[in-house]
């Protein structure tokens, strides 16, 4: 069965809820290297992932983000990642819906004009 644009975008957005995204971010955070974590913390200006993890204090102690030197507490990276991914999913959902509606328009046009004969053709010719 072919997956239409509307069905795929709707199902993908419904499947990616906050709990699932938190699990994905948490799993990928512990797989990446310390250098990559450090670069992410500096580029997003945050420290640690979520306060739910047991290693949060260790992450916070090794953090080199600018916000740590400016204030006593920094925003957690997990919150920023969730916000950023939510914005990206909203944009992707809009793009998916746009293409699904153009797909529906294409199906309607194909059904409307598929059996028309060419008016310039010879009417006695077998088409």
Write the layout of secondary structure elements.
Blueprint: H1 5-15, H2 18-31, H3 34-44, H4 56-61, H5 66-70, H6 77-113
Helix pairs in contact: 1-6, 2-6
Structural account:
This protein has 127 residues and is mainly alpha-helical. It is 66% helix and 0% strand. The protein has one domain (5-112). It is built from 6 helices and no strands. The two termini are 32 Å apart. The relative contact order is 0.15.
Provide key terms for this protein:
single chain, mainly alpha, TSPAN31 isoform 7, transmembrane helix, transmembrane, 127 residues
Structural class based on helices, strands and sheet pairing: mainly alpha
Separate helix tally? 6
What's the story with the biggest beta sheet? none
Helix content: 55-70%
Mean pLDDT: 76
Number of strands: 0
What portion of the residues fall into strands of 2 or more residues? Answer: under 5%
Number of domains: 1
Order of helices and strands: HHHHHH
Terminus-to-terminus distance:
32 Å
Keywords: Membrane, Transmembrane, Transmembrane helix
Transmembrane segments: 12-32, 91-111
Protein name: TSPAN31 isoform 7
């Amino acid at each position: 069965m072919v997956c239409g644009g509307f069905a795929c975008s709707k199902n993908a957005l419904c499947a990616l809820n906050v709990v699932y995204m938190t699990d994905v971010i948490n799993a990928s955070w512990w797989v990446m290297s310390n250098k990559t974590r450090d670069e992410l913390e500096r580029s997003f200006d945050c420290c640690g992932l979520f306060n739910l993890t047991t290693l949060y204090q260790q992450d916070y102690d090794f953090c080199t983000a600018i916000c740590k030197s400016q204030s006593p507490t920094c925003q957690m990276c997990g919150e920023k990642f969730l916000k950023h991914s939510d914005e990206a999913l909203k944009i992707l959902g809009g793009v998916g819906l746009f293409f699904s509606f153009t797909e529906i328009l294409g199906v309607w046009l194909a059904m409307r004009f598929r059996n028309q004969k060419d008016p310039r053709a010879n009417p006695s010719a077998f088409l």
